[in-house]
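Q: Convert this sequence to structure tokens.
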Amino acid sequence: MSRTILVVDDEKHIREGLVAALSMDGYDGLQASDGDEAWKIINSTPVDMVITDLRMPGMSGSELLKKIYSTYPTIPVVVLTGHGTIEDAVEAMQNGAVDFLTKPVNLDHLSVLIRKTLSNKDLADRNRELKIELENLRKKSGYTKIIGKSQKVVRLLETIQRIAGSKASVLITGESGVGKELVADAIVSYSDRRDKPFVKVHCAALNANLLESELFGHVKGAFTGAVSDKKGRFELADGGTIFLDEIGEIDANTQIKLLRVLQEHEFEKVGGEKTIKTDVRVIAATNRNLEEEIKLGHFREDLYYRLNVVRLEVPPLRERKEDIFLLATEFLNEFNKENGKDVEGFSSQAKAKIAAYDWPGNIRELRNCVESAVVMCRGKVIEVDDLPPNVSRASTESSIEIPLGSTMDEAEKAVILATVGYCKGNKSKAADMLGIGRKTIIRKMQEYESNTTGSEPRLSND
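A:
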């Protein structure tokens, strides 16, 4: 893709020499003889990068650098000088320069620096785009905790909004780590019980005796250690909602008492005789196949039907891969703040590994992966080596061969076409993997089709 680099130097032969070198590397070069002329160009023409001399008549390179950094902080600036000192270098970097080079310029070194700088800029730009996309999705859904643009997640949120206002019991199913508790949170958030008690019980964490007492309470002396009356979770949740996580783990006796609560809206405490009425909406979740548990005699069929009035299936992450980098961006921002770091994104190679991995632990595993990668990252970009071993070893399943002697344009075309093909035509996903903008992918694909057919392109923008 064509990039525009502005060269600012009061020495004409240096400007022209650098622009000629940039042209050989495929960049569009602009020239300015001083800071004032450069500032006018920057304000009127899209510029991807600036290379400026430090000492010039009129506006100096230092002043230009400060103005660019304060007004256009996403434009990277490399400072050149023939009179470099350590103090100059430190000051330039403090004022926002990405690097500091002395004259005469080593063109090979400059070429590498430009490629790296623009690649990092692409990653930062894509991260900003993802942040904006996240905010837009949140505004659209009205809920901030469930993140996704895939059809499965969109339909899930629509269903949540549709059923939230009812009193019907809800059964949330899905693999471990998919975010079933977040779905329960969303149901309550959208319901008219949002300001009433919302009590959560993780059934698998308690044995049978403790769970019964925890759910329904007990009276003093009901068992050894019951030194006083205790309210249960159903009593505490009266008027609101109770969330029973891992409902498939509860024992037969507790299943009977729970069925009665669902049918009659009443119960007795352990060891008690007084019947307690309750108005509680029940939301349950499980990663078990309850139909199979019924066949095995482990779960009551009548309780299953009482719980399964509305069923919400939360998709595993491998079935909503277009959401992966939205989620990863959210986690990246979270762990940057938590660890005092400023990691800007993932390299294209790291993205390819993340996209190829199946995520058996789902969102929970992805979150842990990003946290580990942020902690391990030594620079501004997460590389493959920063990822946990199980992710970094993931097979990308696909590779391409670029013949020796191919031009950069030919190599770029081969990579873009292969990536779009690998992503089954999904340009947003291909853009994420390559670390470039979705609009760039669309424009390139249109150019390729136009050059091939000689007619107007007819590509969709999906």
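The domain at 4-105 is CATH 3.40.50.2300 (Rossmann fold).
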